[in-house]
Design goal:
By secondary structure, the protein is an alpha/beta fold. It is built from 13 helices and ten strands. The protein has a five-stranded mixed β-sheet, with helices on both faces. A five-stranded mixed β-sheet has the order 7-6-8-5-9, with helices on both faces. Strand 6, helix 7 and strand 7 form a beta-alpha-beta unit. Helix 3 packs across helix 11. The chain is globular, with a radius of gyration of 23 Å.
Amino acid sequence: MNTRIVGWSILVVIIVLSLALGVTGCDLLSREPGSLKIGVLPILDVLPLYVAEQEGYFAAEGVEVELVPFSSAVERDVALQTDQIDGEVNDLVSAALLNNEDDRVRVVRTAMRATPEKAMFVILSVDDTIQSAKELKGKEIGISGNSVIEYVVDRLLQAEGLSGSDIVKGEVPKIPVRLELLTNGNIPAACLPEPLASLAAVSGAHIVSDDRAHPEYAQSVVSISARTLGKKPAAVKRFLSAYEKAVAALNADPEKYRPLLIEKGRVPKPVEDSFTMPVFPLASVPAEDEVADVLDWMAAKEILARDLVYGELVSANYLP
């Protein structure tokens, strides 16, 4: 009897302390220790992460996040494959390639997408004879092969009535080199991401086509390794809660974060003042038909070693 009384007394003390601290049993279980390392490139898409870091949103959510910069997507992806980072901001083509042979990542959030007002990827030309997408037939377009750039180019030009055989692709993986070749007139056209597309425009190139009319083709995502999701699910949820606060802050007062945009998004000096801040999407994941279209394109190019389905690539379970 005394043992039972002691046991009940301890339970009562725990409950009282929990109530006094404002912590429920569920909260105690969800307060999983752990930190996250997220790989980032110097691109616009990662801005919410730097806002969350600057404003202390990660700390407020109780998660330690280290943003690990990389100069190339290849270096970033290798770091994830070798468990040096827990996640990264990439795209659906990159995420599918990471899952090409092993169940390695899940897309847990859309990071940025094109809108009717703001493009992500733009096809430009310095050739005055090329004013529309149809006039690109048989003309070389500078791209990066087996990437989201090539996917967007294919889909945009197909939407304009061009077939695969009409599109001539020039492999120029490094974006600054592609920009230079375009503006110098060494290639008639090229596809560039923002803000380098805006720089090309002020340097004399003109827009031939972009993804504003087809936002379903252009988006970046946040991908987290399957290993991390298995070990630190609560940390990932807290990370995405902080991310959501950052998006809300960015969209509410974009000019406040222009200096951060210029620094971390590498906005070129000639367009620092004129470049407008993109509107970042609220908590969401890519739609099933969007993912299916990317996978169909990759399958047609025979760059997937196995068939992937939506649930093997995307999960909305970690969104706040």
